[in-house]
Amino acid sequence: MRLNTIIEQIMNGLQKGSVYALVALGYTMVYGIVKLINFAHGDFIMVGAYTTIFSIPLLASIGCPLWLSIIVAILICSLLGILTEKVAYKPLRQSSRITSLITAIAISLLLQNLFAKLFTSSARMFTQVFIFDVPTIIIGTVKLHKVSILTCAISIVVMVCLQLFVKKTKMGKAMRAVSENPDAAKLMGISINRVVSFTFAIGAGLAGLAAIIFCSYSMSFDPYVGGSLGIKAFVAAVLGGIGSIPGAMLGGFLIGLSESMTQTFLSSEWVDIIVFSILIFILLFKPSGLMGKMTSEKV
Amino acid sequence: MKTPNRSMVSFGNVQKRYLLNFVSCFVLLVLVQVFMGNIHGTNYLVILTINCCISIILAVSLNLTTGCLGEMVLGHAAFMAIGAYASAILLKAVSMPALLGFFLGLILSFLMAGLIGFLVGIPALRLKGDYLAIITLGFGMIIKSLLEVLNFTGGAAGIDGIPRNTTVVLSVLMVMVVVAFLFTFMRSRFGRSILAIRENEIAAAATGVPVTQVKVLTFALSAALAGIAGALYAQYMRSISPATFHLDYSIEILVIVVLGGLGSFTGSILAATILVILPEFLRVFNDYRMIIYSVALIIIMLKKPGGILGRFEFSLSKLLIFIKTQFFRRKVKDHE
Amino acid sequence: MKKFFVLVMLLVVGSALVGCQKDDTIGFGVIGPFTGSLSSYGEAVRKGVVLAVEEINRDGGVLGKQVVLYDEDDEGEGAQALAAFGRIANKIDVLIGEVTSGNSKIIAAEAEDNHTPMISPSATDAAVTEDREYIFRACFLDPDQGIAMAKFSAEDLEATKVAVIYDTSDTYSKGVAEAYRGEALRVGLEVVMFDGGFRPADTDYSSLITTLNGLDVDVVFAPVYYEQASVFITQFRNSGNEIPVLGADGFDGIMTVSGVNPAKIDNVYFSNHYLASDLDNTRLQAFITAYQAKYEETPNAFSALGYDATYIAAAAIREAGNLDPIAIKDALTVLTYVGVTGSFQFNETGNPEKGITIVKYVQGVMEKAKVLE
User: Of A290-294, B310-314, C126-130, which has the strongest mean pLDDT?
Assistant: First the structure.
């Protein structure tokens, strides 16, 4: 196999991984603060995709630049995240984990079926590659698609911003405090509700961003894309260590790379098997994930 | 400190209770045979009943790990798949009379699913909570993918032409056997140690419960019982393919268990039955059914997070005692 | 709690007993995934069937009686499909269904036992009709298309090396792909790649396309359904690769995908039942016009097959002269019928001998490439 093919495949893997990474970031942020696996997270992306595809003609008709649809998608997803949290997760903060999980599953089902009813379950193609409509760079005999580089770059930039935000800003500190010890945080005057809403807003907003990137290279979506994407991203988050921002990034890229490498060197049929085997393998040797922290249980 | 489960407190003559339950089960079985046992050809009620039975067995078996042991499992359908394929492969390879085939298939499914459950459980149960859920999900996906890729499982087309050995009577019988087994099992010392682990794992370990062993064996048992459901399914549908045993199915079963009440077998039975029968009535609303279902699910989780029945368990003897005391109270009231 | 159970039992028993068929109507059943992730295919079939029933009734019905259609959704689940059949079994004379091979096999076993004639519009797995007397289908078998396209690749496109990619989780895709490979090897083609590169729910084909671009092949055979095909072909063309992309009847409907760019759908060949723009086929054009008038969308092969399956059922009943299942079954076994999706000649296998039309997409427009009888 030629070197340039391998490099291209690596880029493909990273491109795929960048979406997983962005979605995993959303999962991990929410989980870190609220200890909830938001099963509906993948479906936020689906909502983002539909928002984009409907806002483009709308924006065109009122003469706005098309890239504003990205902002619209992020906003709508953030709002959806906050709404979901207020309606379905907040009342269950004191309940068992599994109750919240089932509620998250229910929201996921609701979103999927609502959109299937409203917009039919037929796939739609997304070929508006406004920003990403750029030619490929050719270095020697290697074709590098600008899309791949752009998506990876966006993901990394987002992660860095997020990490800085969490470490340096006041709200970030508040989020870390709530994650460590909600009761102590409350005593220090931090409003749990605000922090949680903010977290969901960011997480869901990330899903909105991920939706655009997802659309740009997957080119097609239907009401059910959230399911599979959500699972892969969740696996990525767990792989990297759930609750860790760099971990989510690492996990996402790892999963993306595993997929493309398996397809290249082995056979596409084994992709799922390999990916999940990697997950299981890593969890067995480092149960808290690659970059996760071991928390010991207190009696 | 949680109060001990009421159904765990035994009162009344144990042998009398067992006899009562056994007789009522026998009577029910006879009724099933009389009303449905001799129906030939396609019958809607028969199909529904068998679908219910399969769902019930899946629900109660998942309840064992998720409700009683308290560990969330997201790959239950995969064990059903193993059971289904085990039966299917056996019965296509060796032809034998219906009843023999049924029970041999069942035993093989039970053992195979249990074995895989055991092998999966050993590594998986070292993890906790959400990590365990994800690893069981991973195993589930791997098993489904393997079923599609491997040749002897027929690939995506699956296996066709399996003899129909499952009958209504046999299905109901298996439900009774499984449920009776689980009720008795949970009353045993092993069963109590399962509950102990759920309540407080560290305390249980401190009192000498071999936690990992109990967890793995429970998980394996739960898988084995799901295998039984798979055997029933394969020998009823006569054609199986990997597409049936997807993650969504595992989630469906989990939802049934949670709705019924985590830890309550009665709840699982009730929820499984309702969720098989209800869609049949709501066919008019088929377009909106899933939307209504998910909204209802959210509402129920918000209002009654413990599920419809919580941890309540039905007991025939307690019901009779209840009726007797009510009867006596009325008599006393009349005399006053 | 007890009262609830009694009520439920009564209702269930009641609904099973109620609805035995009236004598002055004929019952047609259609079962398929009308909701859920497969609903685009199930709904397409259902719409074709509904249109056909309307037309038949408008033209006087069958044997002077009106046709009543019982449509039952199964969400794509086997257990529900069986229950759906159980619900309507004693109300219908003929069943049109199911849509997918997996559920068709389940219902076929039941329908055979119950002596209900069944015509599947779209199940391509051979096992559906194998060794069964009452089960028929309106579509091709997997091997038919695979073999035809392999021959076409060798003879008409003069290919020497081919790549075959399919969807492992789909019996149709894998079946056609394997048939293609078998025939390709037989006629001397070199199958450079045979990979399950299409995975459901993943429409990013960049890894696959990178691999393909690194190969020296003349054609790519990708027997998948139109929703995946439209994306794959677009991405493939975007990567600069212009070699012909081949498919099977699943490609019919590529142009109906919302947002597809016709310019990208070029140099694509697929085996199909008909050519939609064939103006000589008046029956086909009448169907397309009626379908567009009723549903405001273009029909695809699924709708056309559902439509034909219904008319075939009606034709068989007319031939039989009565509603006796054995008579209907016997009539179906020897039926000759000319429909929208070609001419059918049935035989004891339950599978029709049909002509194949190979269609070419040129900038999104369909043209006739070859007709095989």
Answer: C126-130
Interface check for C207 against chain A (CB to CB < 8 A): the answer is yes
pTM of the model: 0.89
Note if the bond before C367 is cis, omega within 30 degrees.
no
pLDDT band at C35 (very low <50, low <70, confident <90, very high): confident
Which of A50, A263, A273 to probe by mutation at the C interface, max C CB count within 10 Å? A263
Identity at A54, one-letter amino acid code: F
Residues of chain C with CATH 3.40.50.2300: 2-139+281-355, 143-272
Among all residues of chain C, which has the CA nearest to that of B148?
A: C169
Q: Which residues pair with C72 in a beta bridge?
A: C31
For residues B56 and B272, the answer to whether their CB atoms sit within 8 Å is: yes
Other beta carbons within 10 angstroms of residue C354's beta carbon come to 21
From the list C8, C72, C110, the residue facing B277 with the nearest CB is C8
CB contact under 8 A, A5 and C230: no
A108-138: per-residue pLDDT in tens?
A: 999 999 999 898 888 888 876 555 455 556 6
Chain C segment 102-161 residues within 8 A of A by beta carbon are none
Counted residue by residue, chain B has a size of 336
Tell me what the mean pLDDT of segment C23-36 comes to: 90
Task: Report the residue of A36, A96, A105 to disrupt the B interface, i.e. the one with the largest count of B CBs within 10 Å.
Answer: A105
> Which CATH superfamily, name and number, covers C143-272?
Response regulator (3.40.50.2300)
Interchain CB distance below 8 Å, A268 and C197: yes
Res C279 pLDDT > 80: no
Question: Domain limits of chain B?
Answer: 45-335
Question: How near does any CA of chain C get to the CA of A114, in Å?
Answer: 11
* Contact call for residues A126 and A191 (beta carbons, < 8 A): no
ipTM over the 0.90 cut-off: no
Architecture of domain C2-139+281-355: 3-Layer(aba) Sandwich (3.40)
- What is the CATH code for B45-335? 1.10.3470
